[in-house]
Amino acid sequence: MKIYREIKEPFLNACVTIGNFDGVHSGHQQLFSRVVEKARKRGGTSIAITFDPHPLQILLPGGIKLISTCEQKIELIEMAGIDILLIVPFSEEYAKTTADHFVADLLVKRLGTQELVIGYDYAFGKGRSGNIDFIKKQGKILGFSVDVVEAHYEQNQLVSSSRIRQLVIEGRMADARFLLGRHYQIRGTVQVGKQRGGKEVGFPTANLKLEEEDLVPKRGVYVTQVICDGKCYGGILNIGYNPTFGEEQLVVETHIFDFNRDIYGRPIKLNLLKFLRSEKKFSGVKELSEQIVKDVVIAKEVLTTQQKELTMSCSERFNQ
């Protein structure tokens, strides 16, 4: 897949889809599948258009908590088989672009769109004036077809980014995974922490820092799958403030099973499988350590029962 931030020449038989694609969930996958299929039939080019930063990070006071980073979005769209990804830099100035100009200039003149695939609720342009009816009318005038993909449901649940965000915030990882089509994932670079995990508590941890724009799951302890240097490990993760030690900074600490390597400064990916318990203030290190022993036992049981699925998610295709 080739990535562009500016397009100068149109593509052969361009089949295009547009969206923010936050999370690249199973509903988004329907759009990509349709575009790839249409491009293949035409002998043309499948193209996805998205925006960075997410428009609501610019237009909504307080921004929006994103399910996926731009890096992860790129990886997942590439996995869907898209030929070209156009990432449009979004700003307050760009938000003033009218729907008419967006269609005539970007879709038709610069991309050479022959077929456009959009979700049932998508709209673009200043004031979101580029709704479904508008796009269909423009297609007839400017010579491209419009395929509207209806809402996608999984077991009677509407798949949407907003719903997935809510499930993550509530710690409902199995439900979030069902709508995403994969486990919810946190990424980051391992940092030097207080180094109490190994020395005091008996469970060394890999620490990550969450940024303000990150979607933070419910505080507490999770069963997790850790991906480091292309290999997968089981583990338990705590998201919170370490109340036992009176901390004030939100941290992500992961104890990785059967692992004894120095990975400071290295990137890791954490798939959150199951919420175990809320964060709790213990009387001291001894009580905390005893609880972690119990957490580890339960986590290993969960990992064992899900072994087949975890083997799949650790394959090259699913560990994004």
Amino-to-carboxy terminus distance: 15 Å
Computed CA radius of gyration, to the nearest angstrom: 22 Å
How many distinct beta strands?
14
Order of helices and strands: EEHEHHEHEHEEEHHEHEEEEEHH
Strand content: 25-35%
Please give the share of residues in helix.
25-40%
The coarse silhouette is elongated
Number of helices: 10
Order of strands in the sheet with the most strands?
Answer: 1-4-3-2-5-6
Main beta-sheet strand count, sense and barrel state: 6 strands, parallel
**Which class of secondary structure composition applies to the elements?**
alpha/beta
Walk me through what this model shows.
- It is a single chain.
- This protein has 320 residues and is of the alpha/beta class.
- The chain contains 10 helices and 14 strands.
- It has helices at 26-42, 55-59, 70-79, 99-110, 132-142, 161-169, 173-180, 196-201, 285-305, 307-313; strands at residues 2-4, 14-18, 45-52, 84-89, 113-119, 145-149, 153-154, 157-158, 184-189, 206-209, 220-228, 231-240, 251-256, 267-277.
- The strands form 3 sheets. The chain has a 6-stranded parallel β-sheet with strand order 1-4-3-2-5-6, sandwiched between helices. The chain has a 6-stranded antiparallel β-sheet with strand order 9-14-11-12-13-10.
- Helix 1 links the parallel strand 2 and strand 3.
- The longest helix is centred in the C-terminal third of the chain and has 21 residues, at 285-305.
- The model has no long low-confidence stretch (mean pLDDT 89).
Task: Itemize the secondary structure elements and their pairings.
Blueprint: E1 2-4, E2 14-18, H1 26-42, E3 45-52, H2 55-59, H3 70-79, E4 84-89, H4 99-110, E5 113-119, H5 132-142, E6 145-149, E7 153-154, E8 157-158, H6 161-169, H7 173-180, E9 184-189, H8 196-201, E10 206-209, E11 220-228, E12 231-240, E13 251-256, E14 267-277, H9 285-305, H10 307-313
Helix pairs in contact: 6-7
